[in-house]
Design a protein that fits this description.
Layout lengths: L8 H4 L2 H6 L10 E8 L5 E3 L7 E3 L1 H14 L3 E7 L16 H12 L4 E6 L13 E4 L2 E4 L1 H18 L3 E4 L6 H11 L8 E6 L6 H6 L20 H13 L3 E5 L5 H11 L3 E5 L1 H12 L5 H15 L3 E4 L2 H9 L1
Parallel strand pairs: 1-3, 1-4, 1-12, 4-5, 5-8, 9-10, 10-11, 11-12
Antiparallel strand pairs: 2-3, 6-7
Helix pairs in contact: 3-4, 3-12, 4-5, 5-6, 8-9
The structure holds ligand PBG.
Ligand PBG binds next to helix 7.
């Protein structure tokens, strides 16, 4: 490839050839819209740090889900916010817990929309950690193994309520196996698991924790979520989750982790999801509100970049908006 025989601009400088040879396409079929459902809420309550996003009451959730579906987004990712929280996050696995009720309502009232449930305890525990606490080695910390049964119970109640997929985001070791085993035992062999396999301890989750009312009351999540300096470790996490039965593996956050998405895709050739998280959303919305960036252009560039990095599935708060634009 040498000038003047090779001229990169020959294809670039004519719109038809530019379009014809473009390598990456954003497609609606790959989008997932996260939604927050809050127990006891009438209507919707906007989330100040996530302009355009809101906590939704059950009725409003159904209305919003119809808008999502009508835009052509195939799936939502549900987060539940219960009224009551306790040490063990018991409301996470109740048959009539908020997220289970939400799943049932969506399956009954919104045809043609797949429902994925985020499986984690942090929205349900009074301390805000993603698992059960106990003294381990003289420190009060998240106790891995006793947490597994709680996560599996949540996954099973959600799947029984009609969830089409479960997505554990807690980062406990062994949770994919525990969930797979419990689902199978409950006759839910057909329900896939999308594991948050390479989920990093990140400052980009701040706005989400406002939305989900889930910040840890003490300490942080570095004892279970990954260290942002690591990349080989992501491959070990993904390998372990696949071996335990994960059907889709997720990398999260997305923007600063394109290298991880690419490494995971190249190493395993399995479906990979990228979670374009709350802080990434908030930064763009804040800069756009000030008129400092071309909002739509930046959104397209971010999502296309994630697809180019190797993400098959894009979980993004812009899913519905982008789908509407792609439809038009
Ligand atoms: C729950 C969970 C979190 C996110 C998704 N699932 C927050 C956390 O780990 O504290 C973050 C999503 C976002 O920031 O958009 N464990």
């Amino acid at each position: 490839m040498r000038f003047p025989e090779y001229r990169a601009r020959r294809l670039r400088d004519h719109a038809v050839w530019r379009e014809m040879t473009a390598e990456t396409t954003l497609e609606r079929r790959r989008l997932v819209q996260p939604l927050f459902v809050k127990e006891g809420l009438k209507g919707r309550k906007s989330i100040p740090s996530m302009p355009g996003q809101a906590q939704l009451g059950l009725k409003e959730l159904v209305a919003e889900a119809r808008r999502v579906r009508d835009a052509g987004v195939p799936a939502v990712l549900l987060f539940g916010i219960p009224l009551e929280k306790d040490e063990t996050g018991s409301s996470a696995s109740e048959v009539d817990g908020i997220v289970q009720q939400a799943v049932a309502a969506l399956k009954a009232k919104v045809e043609g929309l797949a429902v994925i449930v985020d499986v984690c305890l942090c929205e349900y525990t009074s301390h805000g950690h993603c698992g059960l606490l106990s003294e381990v080695g003289g420190r009060r910390t998240v106790d891995n193994d006793p947490t597994l049964g709680r996560l599996a119970a949540m996954a099973v109640t959600c799947a029984k309520a009609g969830a089409d997929m479960v997505a554990p985001s807690d980062m406990m070791d062994g949770r994919v196996a525990a969930i797979r085993e419990s689902l199978d035992r409950a006759g839910l062999k057909h329900v896939p698991i999308m594991s948050y396999a390479a989920k990093y301890a990140s400052s980009f989750y701040g706005p989400f924790r406002d939305a989900a009312e889930s910040p840890p009351k003490f300490g942080d999540r570095r004892g279970y979520q990954m260290d942002l300096r690591n990349s080989d470790e992501a491959l070990r996490e993904v390998a372990a989750d696949l071996e335990e039965g994960a059907d889709i593996v997720m990398v999260k956050p997305a923007l600063a982790y394109g290298d991880i998405i690419r490494r995971v895709k190249d190493a395993f050739r399995v479906p990979v999801a990228a979670y374009n998280v709350s802080g990434e959303y908030a930064m763009v919305e804040a800069a756009a509100a000030k008129g400092w960036i071309d909002r739509e252009g930046v959104i397209r560039e971010i999502l296309t970049g994630l697809a180019r990095a190797g993400a098959d599935i894009l979980v993004t708060y812009w899913a519905t908006e982008v789908a509407q634009r792609l439809k038009a």
